[in-house]
Amino acid sequence: MSSTVYTVKTPKLELKITLVESSSLHIHEEIIPEILERLIEKIKSDNVWTDPIIVDEKTMVVLDGMHRVAAAERLGFKYIPVCLVDYDDPSIEVYAWSRVFKSPRRESGVLTVDYLDVLLKPLSAAGYRSVHVPGLEAGFEMLNRRDVIGLLVYGKRVVGLKSPTRNIKAIYDRVKGVENIAVNRGFAIEYHTERDGLALAEKAEFAVLIPPVIKKSEVREVALRGEVFIHKATRHVIPARPLRVNVPLKWLTGELDLNSVREELVKNLSTRTVKTLPPGSVLDRRYDEELYVFE
User: Which of 31, 95, 108, 110 is the most buried (most CB within 10 A)?
Assistant: First the structure.
């Protein structure tokens, strides 16, 4: 074990916990101001940095923790706690987030409106071309080919929104356009896993947009160009995650040299026990991965 990196060896993946300069990181999703402000206040209230962000060791692209990077910058922290992982490891998977469009009219009990039609009319006016899809299997084939920017699903209906490009960054920019139109029509947007989104859609509870999955190489390419995808573009499933490293904020200010603070972090973590929790455990939220919680 390096004196500047604390390594947790899990059955599928090595988790390398250390500190890096905030300026060395590359985020790949946009920052939402409201989320950032809440996070900054939480960090101040905690007075420690609770959990490390997840970073691709080879490229320093952030896989999980975009807003925490922005918070560190806003708070003037030169260093930030990270968990370095091998992004090329097949145990790390990337999925898409479904966009679930919830209408206040649906929630108030008015069930006579076809919410897919409510969405398709303004989308058509904005230049989005739609195409009937005979079923989900055919739809996912179209998604994989990037023939469509997404599938709109409502009950038994599946509609593809034609894509003018196969460039994934441009596709997701168009997805954001769909979100904006939905909000302007009075819909609230929630983000669900593909499975949960489809369950809501197939029961005709809500209209759901399923976008294509972004490849790992595309995540890296966009981030290293200094560009970002829209919010909730990727859903990274990492088999293990460290939590509660609880780094004192004074270690992050840059007053001490980086290696000295790294060594202090390793010493601190080495004296603590690590509790393993199974996937599905609920702490501040539900986690789908195995957890390694420092106590």
Answer: 31
Q: Which residues of the chain have pLDDT under 50?
A: 1, 107-112
Query: How do 157-162 and 188-192 pair as beta strands?
Result: unpaired
User: What is the rounded distance in angstroms from the CA atom of residue 294 to the CA atom of residue 251?
Assistant: 18
Question: Which of the 8 DSSP states describes residue 212?
Answer: P
Q: For residue 266, what pLDDT is reported?
A: 97
Count H helices and E strands in the chain, helices first.
9, 18
CATH code, domain carrying 261: 3.90.1530.10
Across 89-117, b (16+ Cβ under 10 Å) vs e yields eeebebebbbbbbbbeebeeeeeeeebbe
Residue position matching structure tokens 């599905």: 280
- pLDDT of res. 234: 98
- Total tally of structural domains belonging to the chain: 2
In this structure, are 169 and 205 located in the same domain?
A: yes
Helix orientation angle between 168-184 and 115-125, rounded to the nearest 10 degrees: 120
**Could you tell me the two tokens for 51?**
């959990």
Asked if residue 104 lies in contact with residue 182, where contact means CB atoms within 8 angstroms, the answer is no
